[in-house]
Write a structure and sequence with these properties.
Elements lengths: L4 H9 L3 H23 L2 H18 L9 H19 L6 H19 L3 H10 L2 H12 L4 H8 L3 H24 L1
Helix pairs in contact: 1-2, 2-3, 2-4, 2-5, 3-4, 4-5, 6-9, 7-9, 8-9
Length: 179
């Protein structure tokens, strides 16, 4: 049986360092993928994730275990990534930030529900055009532009396929939860 985020945070607050390691392992990859979508640089993303996890540890005693931990950790990572971009003098459009927020909640849902195997099974069920785009975007970490080039599709078509694929994936995952 898997230990909840709430239980791990309580254990960390009581001084259990092993609980912190479990929490890191649970979120590290997802945070890296999420931050990569913002900064588009592996080294920077790695640093942002590491700094975000250190910040989480620094404030762990003040975390309210009644609130959703994944929201906090993704919010810290998002803010750190945007700060890093600002520090590097890159331009970040408001539209990109809104897209990241929407994607953040989608990724959070996947992590918080522990649906990794159901996600992979559900992706296999999706119509081919959505399955390919979701796989390239989420599992192979390709950008919209890279997917468009690889599939010889306009970028807007890639975005539409991704959006529709995520909608169908959410419906499929809701069916798993109702079983």
């Amino acid at each position: 049986m898997s230990v909840s985020d709430e239980e791990l945070v309580k254990a960390i607050q009581e001084g259990n360092i092993l609980a912190y390691e479990k929490l890191i392992k649970r979120y590290q990859r997802g945070l890296f993928i999420f931050v990569m979508r913002i900064v588009h640089n592996e080294a920077v993303a790695s640093d942002v994730v590491q700094n975000s996890l250190v910040k989480v540890y620094e404030i762990i005693d003040r975390i309210d275990v009644k609130k959703k931990f994944s929201t906090l950790v993704f919010e810290i990572a998002k803010n750190a990534a945007i700060s890093e971009l600002r520090h590097k003098k890159h331009n970040v459009s408001l539209e990109e930030i809104v897209d990241f927020t929407e994607e953040e909640s989608f990724i959070e849902e996947l992590f918080s529900s522990n649906l990794a195997s159901q996600v992979r099974q559900s992706v296999k069920i999706l119509p081919r055009q959505y399955r390919i785009v979701i796989t390239l975007y989420y599992f192979e970490d390709l950008s919209y532009e890279e997917i468009a080039a690889k599939l010889h599709l306009p970028i807007n078509t890639v975005r539409t396929h991704l959006k529709r694929g995520k909608e169908q994936l959410r419906k499929l995952l809701q069916n798993y939860e109702n079983i």
